[in-house]
Structures are given as C-alpha cells and as structure tokens.
C-alpha cells in the first residue's frame, strides 16, 4: 500500500509543479490570476474500525483554485486601456459564436467595423444610454462607435470616463456618448471556468453574472489609460517551486525505501 500512497504523492507534487509553472509562464500576462493547488488527506476505515487505528492512505487533489486578488496597475496612456480597482469583470461577447466571456484584461482597441474589442473578435459590452449619458437599459450590447456623426463629421477619438461612459468625439468638435461599460460580478468568482486569453465563463458554481456600472458597489472604479498586470508574485512562486520539488523527491525516496523493504522480504523467503 505504501507504493500507491507515495505514488499519489508523486502525482500531487507533479500537479503542483504544473500549476506553479503555469503561474510563472503568465507573470507578464495582463489580467491573469494565479492558481493554487489544494490537497486533502485520504483515510480508509469502516463502521467497525477503531477510530484510533484508522490509517491514512495518502493525499488527493481537492481543487486548483484561482486567486482573484488585484494585480499591479500599470499606466499606459492608451484611451482604451482600462483597469478595474474592484471585483468586477469586463463583459465580452464573441462575434462568431455569441458566447459571453468575462475578463480582467482591459487592453481594448477598435476593429474595422468600429466595434471595441480585445483583438480576438470578442466585443466589449456596454449599457445603452441616451444623449445625456443616462443608462436606458440594463441589458448589455456591443460597444460600437459610429464612423461619422449625424452631420457627417468623421470620428476623431474616444475617451472612457471613471463612470464607464464611452464618449466618441468627431472632427467638428462634437461628441456622442456610445454607452456605459457593463461590468459583471459573481457570488463565487473562484467557480468561473478558465477558457484562455485571460477570459472566463460563468458556471453553475460561480453563479450567474450580476451586471452593474463602474463605481457602484463591489464592481470597483474604472481607470482609463491603465492595465492590470498579472497578480503572480515571482518570488513566492519560486519558493513554492522549491517546496514542490522537495515533496516530489521525498515521495520518490519513500517509493525507493518501500522497494528495498520488499526486496529484503523476498530475499528472506528465498
């Protein structure tokens, strides 16, 4: 039994090494949230077993949880580089499949169809507003900037306010509020499913998204001209890497010791 106990330990250490390696690889990925391995002990016993003599049979992986602590904020100066100071997520919609995604990576741009997107054909979602910037609906829609205004003047630039208002300016000096950035929050963000490119999907564990505007409640304030960097602490990860390596070596040594004991028993019988 000691072979399988130590083998489980080897697998767990290997999993931890993989999670740490993934964290280190994404130390420069905007909006990335580091992972952590959680293990649980395994015991074997029956109703007739003496609780003082129940033997443990190793450990098992309980979860690979995500840490959604705020990462460092880097000033970039880009009008469509957005960062959040709270627990909210930017809401994105895939232009191809219509899938709704959530992200903390606020590096946006404008595509050839005048939609604000993330460069992967996922469009930023905003709340529709009237001419005064008042939200008229709480159902998010694609953020699209008209190429010209009602008078035919060409688009000249865009700004995003701390309240999330996306304002387009035109060559004749006029401006138009396109919408207000729609933020999402979850009852259990650690239940979100990672889908890559710093994007997540809602699951039954995370609960459905609750939408709101920047500056309200837990959504946090919005900063234009800034990006949230990865929350990976490289020094902490390197220490964890050494610990995981030692755990792997210790379990490998336990297997080697069990092998020697088994060989000794076999030699006694022969």
From TrEMBL:
Main localization category: other
Coiled coil segments of this chain: none
InterPro entries: Flag_bb_rod_N, Flagellar_FlgE/F/G, Flg_bb/hook_C_dom, FlgE/F/G-like, LlgE_F_G-like_D1
Superkingdom of origin: Bacteria
Annotated GO biological process: bacterial-type flagellum-dependent swarming motility
One cellular-component annotation, GO: bacterial-type flagellum basal body
Pfam families: Flg_bb_rod (PF00460), Flg_bbr_C (PF06429), LlgE_F_G_D1 (PF22692)
SUPFAM superfamilies for this protein: Flagellar hook protein flgE (SSF117143)
Keyword tags: Bacterial flagellum, Cell projection, Cilium, Flagellum
Nucleotide-binding found in the keyword field: no
Residue span, Flagellar hook protein FlgE/F/G-like D1 domain: 83-168
Sequence ranges assigned to domain Flagellar basal-body/hook protein C-terminal in this UniProt record: 224-268
Domain Flagellar basal body rod protein N-terminal: start-end pairs: 3-33
Compartments in which it is found: Bacterial flagellum basal body
NCBIfam families on file: FlgEFG_subfam
Record family assignment: Belongs to the flagella basal body rod proteins family.
Family annotation (PANTHER family): FLAGELLAR HOOK PROTEIN FLGE, FLAGELLAR PROTEIN
Protein purpose: A flexible structure which links the flagellar filament to the drive apparatus in the basal body.
Listed name of the protein: Flagellar hook protein FlgE
Organism: Croceibacterium soli
